[in-house]
Design goal:
105 residues, 0% strand
Length: 105
């Protein structure tokens, strides 16, 4: 299950990158990049709404798979880096002006 979710997540990542790169900026015209002089390649308003809808869907898939992978991978073996360490009590107090490190030679 985690492998399938990871594969979907990777495909969503690649698709999201591609979709964002394909979108035109505020002052740029996608048709001018291909030598055309029209206002838009896909029509006057069709391209923005279609690309916007695809972006929202792919972003939602990305978020859902991110949460799913987090929940699946977070249920592994719980261990600690402090495992096996004993509680060693501090025997002395630090004295002002004295360094706990030995002097360098």
């Amino acid at each position: 299950m985690a492998t399938v979710t990871l594969l979907i997540h990777l495909l969503a990542c690649i698709a999201l990158i591609f979709i964002v790169l394909v979108q035109r900026g505020k002052g740029a015209d996608l048709g001018a990049a291909f030598g055309g002089s029209s206002q838009a390649v896909f029509g006057t308003t069709g391209a923005t709404s279609i690309i916007h809808k695809i972006t929202v869907i792919v972003a939602a898939v990305f978020m859902i798979t991110s949460i799913g992978l987090t929940l699946m991978m977070g249920r592994g073996v719980k261990s600690s880096v402090m495992k096996g360490m004993s509680n060693v009590p501090v025997t002395g107090k630090a004295q002002p002006g004295k360094s706990p490190m030995p002097p360098k030679k």
